[in-house]
Amino acid sequence: MNVDLSEAKWFKSRRSGGTKECVEVAFLGGGRVGVRDSKNPTGPALVFTAAEWDTFTGSTSGGRSDRS
User: Fold this and answer.
1) Which helix (H) or strand (E) holds 50?
2) Tally of structural domains, the chain
3) N or C terminus: which one in the chain shows less Cβ crowding within 10 Å?
4) What is the average per-residue pLDDT within 7-17?
5) SS percent in the chain: helix, strand, coil, step 5
């Protein structure tokens, strides 16, 4: 999927602590969500559908992605 990210407004979590080792997120048109590495803002980005993003954030906030 090719998505134009030139107008994306990227942001980091308030919990990132201000370090450069974070991911940035942008809410895109069509309900899509972009994710990129803050250390490489001109590099590649992942793009998720709204349903994929909801599944991801739901599993991480519920602790289901913890590696035990």
Assistant:
1) helix 50-61
2) 1
3) C
4) 84
5) 25, 20, 50
In a domain, 52, yes or no: yes
User: Does residue 67 form part of some domain?
Assistant: no
Which two structure tokens, joined as six digits, stand for 43? 């590099």
Looking at residue 68, its pLDDT comes to 54
Coil, strand or helix at 11: strand
User: Would residue 5 count as lying in a domain?
Assistant: no
Range of the domain at 29: 22-61
Asked whether 37 and 19 are in contact (CB, 8 A), the reply is no
Report d(CA 14, CA 53) in Å as an integer: 18
Q: How confident is the model at residue 62 (pLDDT cuts 50, 70, 90)?
A: low
pTM recorded for the entire structure: 0.77
Percentage of residues in the chain having pLDDT higher than 90: 44
